Amino acid sequence: MPKHLQDTTTLYNGVKMPWMGLGVFKVEEGQELELAVKNAIKHGYRSIDTAAIYNNEEGVGRGIRAGLQEAGITREDLFVTSKVWNADLGYESTLQAYETSLKKLGLEYLDLYLIHWPVEGKFKEAWRALETLYKKGLVKAIGVSNFHVHHLEELLKDAEIKPMVNQVEFHPRLSQDELRAYCKEQGIQFEAWSPLMQGQLLDNPVLKGIAEKHGKSIAQVIIRWDLQNGVVTIPKSTKEHRIVENASVFDFELSKEDMEMIHSLNQNHRVGPDPDNFDF
């Protein structure tokens, strides 16, 4: 159980990944983005998650450089993730997409590179490219995002290297029990995007009761629930006080009853597309 913001889980290849990071989905290029990344690093975050399709890798890179300088730490102290977009899935195109992301971020390597969506007929060639990047030591870990069990099973038929991470939509309304169990069995680290359901859970009465009992916010309770489930989580915020608040989850523990009450909220409800039925 993580006890500190900088605690890590060890991926099956030995790479250490922070349990918690900052997500920057839909945060546009500009000062707000750069400040969010810089402030997260200043306040102890050691993981930043972006993607090519977010169109903000350059700003993330500037925020990282400012954050490293202010915090007095080195690049090696950070865990940076990006993702290859659907239009670039293919062997050569994925290799090129990786180089483009590196250049925009101003980095020499990524800690984690993910296939963003399981586009049928394309993700296997993209995975072969990720394996090449990994074998060459150009990325520390490789993984996937939004993969169901059957996508993972299909990938593993031909893969030389098993994904180290599967980043998917996960929150109390979408507990993904079957997928989590499969990933655990395979040694694939489960990671949550949209852990706060894009704010839709922040007035839930069950969560409100648990939060009041612990003297915490609903967001803090949800993030704590992620961590106690062994799920890496990357809540998004651009406001400094929220960035700090989201990370203040290591001084309390949810009881077994709390955990079960939160789990009972599951409705298999998504705020994002279903990986079996997306069109972009």
TrEMBL record:
Site (Lowers pKa of active site Tyr): K83
Molecular-function GO term, any one: oxidoreductase activity
Domain NADP-dependent oxidoreductase: 31-266
CDD domains attached to this UniProt entry: AKR_AKR5G1-3
InterPro entries, A to Z: AKR, AKR5G, Aldo/ket_reductase_CS, NAD(P)_OxRdtase_dom_sf, NADP_OxRdtase_dom
Record keywords: Oxidoreductase
EC code(s) of this entry: 1.1.1.-
Pfam family name, one: Aldo_ket_red
Binding site for substrate: H116
Keyword Oxidoreductase among UniProt keywords: yes
Keyword Oxidoreductase: yes
Catalytic site: Y54
Family named by the database record: Belongs to the aldo/keto reductase family.
Protein name (database record): Probable 2,5-diketo-D-gluconic acid reductase
Native organism: Brevibacillus brevis (strain 47 / JCM 6285 / NBRC 100599)
